[in-house]
Write a structure and sequence with these properties.
Elements: H1 4-43, H2 49-55, H3 63-69
Length: 73
Amino acid sequence: MCTFGQGAFLAWKDYGLEKGREEGIEKGKLDNLIENISALLESGTISDIQQAFSILHVKKELQPKILKRLNLN
């Protein structure tokens, strides 16, 4: 049998692991989008970042993060 403190620790540990996984997945997706956008811009296929957002169906809430990472804001 465990104490309340041990139970609380285990619950928070599981919560922290889950949040870390979520953030890691989001960062991976963001990195992948940035690579794809950079490739489109460098290839000359498109001339505008908004075209890249449209082609790649980038969600509105991710666009400021991408612009910041690309130093285009």
